[in-house]
Structures are given as C-alpha cells and as structure tokens.
Amino acid sequence: MSLTSAATLATLDRTGPRRITDLAAVEGVTQPAMTTLVRVMEESGLVERRGDVSDKRVTLVCLTEAGASYVRTRRQAGVHAFERLIGELTSDEVEVLVAALPALKHLAELESQDREGPKQ
C-alpha cells in the first residue's frame, strides 16, 4: 500500500468521512489522483462512498471496518517497533524521552491540525 493510501486511511480514521476534494487537499495530491486512489481503496474494501445526509449533492468517503482494522494493525505494528527500540535505550535516555513527551504530543497535534486544514 502506498504512503498516500495509508495516510488517507489514517485521516479518515481520525476525522471521519470526508469529501474527495478535502482528502486531496489534506494529503497534498490532485483531486483526480485522490479519485483514483479512493476507487482503488474502494475496490479493496477499505473505504466506501456514501451520500451526505445534510447535502444530497455531496458524496463522502468513509472508512469500512476492513479499513479501520488495517489502520489499527499498522498503528499497533508501529507501537511494537517503538517498544522494541525503546527497550534498547539506557535508563537516562528513557528519562529524557519521557520528559520530551509533552512537546512531542504538542508537535503531533500541530501536525494533525495542519494536515486537516480549515474546519468546515
């Protein structure tokens, strides 16, 4: 799976259903490229398209259970990789890492806000 596909699935998991135009903007690709990507992920059963109940003209891309499971599995693999690597640090290095967690969390929040773009 491409990084853009994985990032799109993670965005849908984090933010909920989105328009293709919104996803394209968030992921930094063109709308035609996102349309193709969504079609491929739809054929793979990872996403589905649904109508927007508040605006019948709009189609939203939604994560399926298979897509959500994929995101959870990838995240868990990342957690295991970090656990293994942290286990190789000295106790002093672990203390420094723990002290840096608030700043790292803030960076992640800023990045997430930046990727999501303006709220509708």
Give an account of the 3D structure.
The chain is α+β, with helices and mostly antiparallel strands and 120 residues long. It has helices at 3-15, 20-27, 31-43, 65-86, 91-116; strands at 47-52, 55-63. A two-stranded antiparallel sheet has the order 1-2. The longest helix is centred in the last third of the chain and has 26 residues, at 91-116. The protein starts with a helix and ends with a helix. 15% of the residues are buried. The model has no long low-confidence stretch (mean pLDDT 91).
Would you summarize the structure shown here?
The protein has 120 residues and is α+β, with helices and mostly antiparallel strands. 68% of the residues lie in helices and 12% in strands.
Principal-axes shape call: elongated
Total strands: the figure is 2
Q: What is the averaged pLDDT score?
A: 91
- Summarize the helix and strand pattern as letters: HHHEEHH
Question: What is the CA-atom radius of gyration, in angstroms?
Answer: 17 Å
Distance between the termini: 29 Å
Show unreliable segments.
Answer: none
**Which assembly state applies to the chains in this document?**
single chain
Helix/strand-derived category reads alpha+beta
Main β-sheet, in a few words?
2 strands, antiparallel
> Beta fraction of the residues?
5-15%
Binned, the helix content reads 55-70%
Strand order of the largest sheet: 1-2
Give structural attributes:
elongated, 120 residues, two-stranded antiparallel sheet, single chain, alpha+beta, 68% helix
